[in-house]
Amino acid sequence: MASAITSWSEENFSCSICQDVFSSPVSTPCGHNFCRTCITKYWDEQVKYKCPVCNKLFDARLDLQVNTLLSEMVDRFGTSVRVREQPYVEPAEVPCDVCTGTQLKAVKSCLECFMSFCQTHLEPHQRFTVLKKHRLAEPMDHLEDRMCKKHDRLLELFCQTEQVCVCQFCTETDHRSHPIVTLKEEYEVRMAQLGKIEAEVQQMIQERQNNIQEIKDKIKCSKADADREIADGVQVITALMRCIEKCQDDLNQMVKERLKSTEKQAEDLIKELEQEIEDLTNTSSEVKQLSQTKDHLHFLQAFRSLKNPPPTRDWTTVEVRPPSYVGTLRRSLDQLEETLSMEMMKLRDAELKRVQQYEVDVTLDSDTAQPRLILSEDGRQVHDGCVERKLLDNPKRFTKQLCVLTRQSFSSGRFYFEVKVKDKTGWGLGVVRESINRNSFIIVTPETGYWTLYYEEDGLLFSDDPDVRLPLRAELQKVGVFVDYDEGLVSFYDVEARVHIYSATGCTFSEPLYPILCPSLYDYKGNNSAPLIISPVNQTD
């Protein structure tokens, strides 16, 4: 019945006089329905009593009674309409706890019943005297969690001392001396903190996204470097293979030509011998034929022609000598070595240009210089001043070793710098870790934090345990130092000759690295007075 009523339109329950939903509906004998107030007022204004719809006349004014069945149907229709007009609950909204099936949005929550009601189910709280005394509040979800377990009151305050939500009674008992604020006040404070946290989290997310992008960029660069290295390697090795193949072809051709010449000589001699054999064979036949004649006159006449046999070569002095290949292979390899040396020079030049791309601008730090050292104003030159000056104590300063560090340090990536060593008879340079001992003479090795190249009277060496002695082709004028922190690589280059001097590989770096310059002593004879000079990279050198 209820579903049938909800399917009817409002016109089925409307008074034809006021055009509104029936109020205390009554029915006339002709079967039409009106609000009792409307039909009464209508008849008060008429002389004759008739139906406003069909104009049927009645003999007298009728005493109409409320149509109970129609009144109930109107009530149900009104309720159904009100229900349909109420909004359904949406996500994050409080639902009505009484609705079955499709839940409607709650408009109030009862703090006595611990339930939330839609407009329809709230009606008893508005009609019955007992329920009117209940405390109603704005809709709240999970009411049982919002009530104080001890006092059965709404948690509407916040204790800042114990950082808990409390009710009004709590503030008068257990939390009497504690600072208390409303939930709204604490909410606003926490929301401000939440906003700050959100900003920090977003910043951290952005930083990590940037890190991801940096990693991707590095991978991209690494792939480009790898592709370029492979391409360069293929180009160089292909050129070397062509050189080797040409050397082999030239060697083969030279050997074959010598063999061909010897074979031609042999063939010519064989032809000459065969011709002599043929001539001698003919002579032998004539001799045999003459030896069989019995005619004395004919014999003597024919014998005269045999006194002059066909001319022949003296073969005792003739021989075919196999060609000598002594030195042929060596000469070919010498030529190959010359070609390979030219290619290697191109390769070394390309390698140096590649590391020079990582040039860094460094200047010397006077706070680290040993008191004998003199630095230029621009911090790019250093030499021994012969006299140890009195300077303020500084934990960064070298007190024994004649060394100075740069202001700049490096904790990752790659870097390269060049130092002029021209006209010096002794020097040292390279990189050191930050924590090296600066106040005593120590054994300078990678284990003690030094990756350094030294030039002394005995020659060139990389300081290690034991030292690595290195060949010195010519007087060094400028030395380049390249460091790949992440790969654990320190390399030294002869810049003028475009030659790689030495590389320390497999190094372990766990702290900042500083470039170090050691100009060595300026002796009493005036030797080694030239400075070490940090110079800019000139890739045209």
Characteristic terms for this protein:
541 residues; Jelly Rolls; disordered N terminus; six-stranded antiparallel β-sheet; alpha+beta; elongated; Herpes Virus-1; seven-stranded antiparallel β-sheet
Judged by helices, strands and strand pairing, the structural class is alpha+beta
Which regions contain 5 or more consecutive residues with pLDDT less than 50?
A: 1-7
Shape: elongated
Spatial strand order of the main sheet: 11-12-23-14-19-20-21
CATH architecture of one domain: Sandwich
Helix content: 25-40%
The fraction of residues assigned to DSSP E strands is 15-25%
- What is the CATH third-level topology name of one domain? Jelly Rolls
Q: Major beta sheet, specifics?
A: 7 strands, antiparallel
Total helical segments = 9
Cα(first) to Cα(last) distance is 104 Å
| Backbone CA Rg | 58 Å
